[in-house]
Amino acid sequence: MTIAFLGLGRMGEPMATNLLRTVPDLIVWNRSRPALDRLQALGATVATDPRNALRDATIAFLMLANDSAIDVVLERGSDAFAANVGGRLIVHMGTTSPAFSRGLEAAITQAGGRYVEAPVSGSRVPAKRGAVVDMVAGGEEDVKTIRALIRPICGQTFACGVVPGALTMKLSVNLFLITMVTGLMEAAQFAAAHSLDLDLFRSIIEAGPMASDVSRVKLDKLVQGDFTAQASVADVRMNSGLVAAAARAANLVTPLLDQADALYGMAEQFGFGADDMIGVIRALQAASRAQGATDPGEARP
Asked: Which of 167, 196, 162 minimizes the C-alpha distance to 296?
């Protein structure tokens, strides 16, 4: 069993690094070189291009940015696609729409391959610790194989039935995450606007029943003025769009998500797309200033 990992971005690089603990002959590919050099220094085999990575592997993990990137890497729609995926198990670990995943499964199956979706919940910090949560969907035996294989990557894994059960579950989790962090930043803006000490605000949140790993990490970053991305504003906006589209397809109303999506869109427009998702507080501040509210500053101690 030869394994390849394609996509060494903010999440993919630490995930592949952890996978190397049990797969020392891991094949890796990435669009840019620095991450490849770091993985190669740890013992991974670097593929010259995605086609070689796929064709040298029996199982290929894809941790790619979006559906367009997946189609390009797999060469979907070309004569090369069948040779890239045929006889292989393709594991989609990124976040796309459930409809895209369902169509990808059909295309891979028709080309003689097998398909599992295994999106993760978490950011770069838990990815480094091998503590992301993974949701897996597909054929029963393939799901069992992948859950065993990704143990170095994940704190926990959950079987979510058939495709697109895992991606639909991931979007459900993301809806909660997005609205929760947006609410937390709105509360922080409220505290700062009333000249309250944000470090004290953080301590009180952490002492109470609303504390969570997410609130601890995000409030610590806010107090420290650290907007370095774990999950960026742009990534969150992409995810909120996927959730909103899936909700509309199911005839659901999502008022909290819709407001959050608008705020992250505003943060992008103001140039904060590369910031951590706590950068949404800057959109809240801008909206408050626009309606003549008291300027809370940068909401930093």
From this structure: 196
* Cis ω before 14 (30° cut-off from 0): no
- Collapse the DSSP code of 61 into the 3-class scheme (helix H, G, I; strand E, B; otherwise coil) and give the result: strand
Q: Please state the separation of Cα 220 from the chain's center in Å.
A: 21
d(CA 120, CA 114): 20
Dihedral sign of CA atoms 30, 36, 38, 41 in order? positive
**Number of residues written out for the chain:** 301
Q: Which residues, in sequence order, are CB contacts of 177 under 8 Å at separation 6+?
A: 121, 214
Determine the Cα–Cα distance for residues 200 and 191; give it in Å rounded to an integer: 10
Q: pLDDT value at position 218?
A: 97
Q: Is the pLDDT of residue 264 over 90?
A: yes
- As a whole number of angstroms, the distance between CA 4 and CA 11 comes to 16
Six token digits for residue 244: 């909103």
User: Which amino acid does the sequence have at 185?
Assistant: M
C-alpha span between 45 and 48 (Å, rounded): 10
Taking the C-alpha atoms of residue 12 and residue 91, their distance in angstroms, rounded to an integer, is 13
For residue 296, pLDDT beyond 70: no
Distance CA 197, CA 201 (A): 6
Q: Tokens for 107?
A: 């295309």
Q: Is the pTM of this model over 0.90?
A: yes
